[in-house]
Design a protein that fits this description.
With about 180 residues, the protein is an all-alpha fold. It is built from 9 helices and no strands. Helix 1 packs parallel to helix 6, helix 5 packs antiparallel against helix 9 and helix 7 packs across helix 8. About 20% of the residues are buried.
């Protein structure tokens, strides 16, 4: 990941990776067919860190519980970034070099992004079901707003480090979404 972050996708060769890992290029080819395959393995590892069991997500069965769950989701995104800044680093690389990355890699990234968007949309639908969110709220659009807000704040945090309080910023965004999308409005 350090090599991709330092030299970009195109500037990171399997030779450079092999040197940094202290193995031969042939050893890499034993495990990976090409650089794309290696990069996808890095992506899987980095994103897999996010899917490790951690602090249990509260399961809502009423409006109050849903609000707690919604806020927990944003707090958890901050926690995961703080524990593993590689996710932000990976997203920056992909964003900056999307025109240089192969269609195969982009498809994998888009698929991962779609899973996140679908998860956010499902959460918004549940919020509507519990009467927390306005019944007319477009869940797909709300999911896009959540994801875009997260990505923007995570990028700021990654670029500015401890001077930017990611946890506080994500918590504030969550509260603003709850207020702006409220069924009581």
């Amino acid at each position: 990941m350090d090599l991709f972050a330092s030299y970009g996708y195109r500037g990171t060769s399997l030779s450079r990776i092999a040197r940094a890992a202290g193995v031969t290029k042939g050893a890499l080819y034993w495990h990976f067919t090409d650089k794309e395959d290696f990069f996808l393995a890095v992506v899987d590892k980095v994103l897999g860190e996010w899917n490790k069991p951690g602090k249990a997500k509260p399961q809502a069965d009423n409006a109050c519980g849903f609000q707690r769950e919604f806020l927990w989701t944003f707090e958890n995104m901050a926690r995961l970034n703080e524990q593993n800044p590689w996710v932000s680093r990976l997203l920056l690389i992909i964003t900056l070099e999307s025109h240089k990355i192969s269609p195969r890699v982009l498809r994998a990234i888009r698929k991962a992004n779609r899973r996140h968007l679908d998860g956010f949309a499902e959460m918004v639908e549940r919020g509507k079901k519990f009467g927390v969110f306005n019944a007319e709220l477009d869940a797909e659009w709300a999911a896009t707003q959540i994801f875009a807000s997260y990505l923007g704040l995570a990028h700021l945090w990654y670029l500015h480090g401890p001077r930017f309080d990611l946890r506080r910023s994500l918590t504030r965004a969550a509260h603003e979404f709850l207020g702006n999308w409220s069924a009581a409005r």
